[in-house]
Amino acid sequence: MNFDLHNVELVGQQTPDPLRFAFSRKKSPHAGGMMHSVKGEDIQISLEEAHALAPANTLAPRCLYIHIPFCRVRCTYCNFFQYASSSSLIEGYVAALREEIRWKASQTWTQAAPFQAVYIGGGTPTDLSAKQIHTIVSDIRSQFPLTPDCEITLEGRVNRFGLDKFEAALDAGVNRFSFGVQSFNSHVRRSAKRLDDREDVLKTIQTLVSYNAAPIVLDLLYGLPYQTLDVWQQDLQDYMESGAHGVDLYQLIEMQGLPMAKMVEQGKLPHPADTQMKATMFDMGVKFMARHHQKRLSVNHWASDNRERSIYNSLAKTTAEIMPLGAGAGGNVNGCQMMQTRDMDTYKSAISERRYPVTMLTMAPSNRAVAAEVKSGFDAGVLAQSKLDRVAGIGTFEALIPLFNAWERNGLVYLERGDEAASDTGIEVVSVAGGGYVSLTLAGQFWAVTLAQNLIEVLQSNTPTGNSNVIKNEATHVAA
């Protein structure tokens, strides 16, 4: 297998502080690879064929993603904003969405097997009325086959999320709530165009938690303007004080063209944290969660009790199929990876004509499981030889040992060789076929997406012995 071990973009810098300086910056929130694009009318033909067939494996996990493309206010860092919330626009959209739900629920692919997770994301789904939330969730539950323990998540913000909406969602069957708090600090929140101050946010979350009816999960973002280390420490403390059942710690990814970048350029906001500061904040977050005995579910997600499972977020990084519903939704069905149009009029017109409202379609290669295994493994913090070799071919892990060694020298991973596993006595060396692991260090966890992307690109450009298929890999992108 060919790769350049002198390329610092691949192996990282050799530095006493790999957490902060292994790479220059994180370039993307997700790892991914190349796929074959489908154009023109072939999009409709391919999708009609995909939905008319049952999945090849009816036991494989799959999910539903429903996109609600409305927000009352656009946050300065957000790339998902589509439409400002208005009652008339939302009403027309919900009608079209319900029509899409009825149409797609009747298809062969849909009814062939149950769904393990449903995620209603955006946008801000909690901008819907209590009745609209109840109606959409009820439609999903009555028309789609769901597993008995199906996780049904409603995403949103606490602003104007009254108990009427909460109780309507619970009554309809929502059993998990995810709120994008980002920061509790009132000044940080206002600068990011987040509504409500710290006291109101804490009070609302504590009230929802007190119902003891479903897991309440928070997103916290680190690296925002005005978010000092002291502010970040208080954000972590506030998570504990809120009583929430789980939390994601996400790194701010700066993108050109977003309101934040423009405001910084105009001098209206200070620069957000640089990579080294964000690495420090990640370090603080990991140590804080360990000190408070939070259960770690992935490199950036923790739970305070066993009710928080994060099923959708975990499955989205695997080969699980995801049916998209709504304008701007993304998913994959029977090897078709798709993004639905973000344009409201185009979406409504397509649904009324029973045409798939898809603007981008790519076909997954036969070895798409390879990229999924890399992404899910690095998200969990460990890549297993047995799992990688099962999808990429025997010998793949061994062929990558020089790269793993370079990462280990640079403080990013721990490499465990199957033939180096010692017995409990410390004397006998036990050979374990396929028993190798690459475990991420703290620095590796911070750079997990970068490492996963680099490994996917290496596998794309090489053909390990015994497996001529490991050339191209899938990029899974689902709006959530």
From TrEMBL:
The UniProt keyword set, sorted, is: Iron, Iron-sulfur, Metal-binding, S-adenosyl-L-methionine
Q: Name one GO biological process term.
A: porphyrin-containing compound biosynthetic process
* Cellular component terms (Gene Ontology): cytoplasm
Q: Which InterPro entries match?
A: Aldolase_TIM, Coproporphyrinogen-III_oxidase, Elp3/MiaA/NifB-like_rSAM, HutW, rSAM, rSAM_sf
**Pfam families recorded:** Radical_SAM
Record bears the keyword Iron: yes
What GO MF terms are annotated? 4 iron, 4 sulfur cluster binding; catalytic activity; metal ion binding
Needed cofactors, names only, are: [4Fe-4S] cluster
Domain named Radical SAM core: residues: 56-296
Q: Spell out the PANTHER family in the cross-references.
A: COPROPORPHYRINIGEN III OXIDASE, COPROPORPHYRINOGEN III OXIDASE
User: Can you say what this protein is called?
Assistant: Heme utilization radical SAM enzyme HutW
Q: Which species is this record about?
A: Enterovibrio norvegicus FF-454
